[in-house]
Amino acid sequence: TNWTNGTGTSFTLAEGTYAINAIQVGQIDVSGNISSVVKNAGTIVVDTSNPSFTSATNVNFEINAAITTTVYDAQASNLNGGNADDGITYSIKNASTS
User: What superkingdom heads the lineage (predicted)?
Assistant: First the structure.
């Protein structure tokens, strides 16, 4: 087993897929006592690649026509706080709200 030191109460995993029981976590106190080791109960995927949406897509419809469309929104978690959807804009131009 290769152990990697964490910082405080956390550690960082490298990008990749980790099978069940592949990650083991334990703590050693200042006296050298080792805690019980716990393992991941499910698969963990660390993906640091950018989203696959490379450019904005404009969709044009007839004014006041009945429309149905699907809007795709890449969801992400912002571990540094803030809104993960910052920078995504939806708009309907010349639409009647009545």
Answer: Bacteria
Q: What 3-state class would DSSP assign to 84?
A: coil
What's the length of the chain? 98
Give Cα 72 distance to the centre of its chain. Answer: 16
In whole angstroms, give the CA distance from residue 75 to residue 77: 7
In the chain, DSSP assigns E strands to: 16-18, 24-25, 38-39, 44-46
Tell me how far apart the alpha carbons of residues 27 and 34 are, in angstroms, rounded to a whole number.
6
Kindly report, residue by residue over 3-59, the tens digit of the pLDDT: 888 887 788 888 999 999 999 988 888 898 988 989 999 888 888 877 666 666 666
Distance CA 45, CA 17 (A): 4
- Hey, is 88 helix, strand or coil? coil
Distances (CA, A) of 16 to 1, 12, 49: 18, 12, 11
